[in-house]
Specification:
The protein is an all-alpha fold. Helix content is 82%, strand content 0%. It has one domain: Four Helix Bundle (Hemerythrin (Met), subunit A) (Up-down Bundle).
Length: 160
């Protein structure tokens, strides 16, 4: 069971980080497109987030928590607790700093494509928040992977 959960956790992590990378690439390159094409790419980004990013994140979270619960050695490991807390931060950050701005940017880009130039500042703000959120989530994922690989002891956190 432990190996199956680890396998599921790793595959879901690939999906999570791949979707973050894809969203970043699309968000950065879409800025050069015409308003109609830009709106289509923004809706594609939102679809990518809905069908790959969020499901992958849920599988990462659930498989990680299941592994943590089943493997008693993790209960006393500070690195495992840090990983669990960071994964919850990734969940919250994805919902607040990635998903919400992506939805707002998709809606605003549709308005811009329909000829409403007054929303350009709001769209720029949503895009800035989305890109920043994606970079932060990617960094947190890399830290989580590092914790899983090196499993630092954090002697200063252990009881004496």
């Amino acid at each position: 069971m432990k190996r199956l959960l680890k396998f599921i956790h790793e595959v879901a992590t690939v999906g999570l980080m791949g979707s973050i990378a894809a969203q970043l690439v699309l968000a950065i390159t879409a800025a050069e497109l015409a308003p109609g094409d830009f709106a289509a790419v923004r809706w594609g980004i939102l679809t990518l987030s809905k069908w790959l990013l969020l499901p992958s994140l849920m599988v990462v979270l659930l498989s990680g928590l299941a592994t943590f619960g089943l493997h008693r050695a993790f209960h006393d490991a500070p690195w495992a607790w840090m990983k669990a807390v960071l994964t919850l931060a990734v969940l919250e950050g994805t919902l607040v700093a990635v998903q919400a701005p992506a939805r707002r940017a998709a809606e605003l880009s549709s308005q811009l494509a329909n000829g409403d130039p007054t929303i350009a500042a709001a769209l720029d703000d949503a895009l800035r928040h989305e890109r920043g959120g994606l970079w932060v989530i990617m960094a947190l994922c890399v830290v989580n992977i590092g914790l899983a690989i090196w499993r630092p002891r954090f002697r200063w956190m252990q009881p004496r």
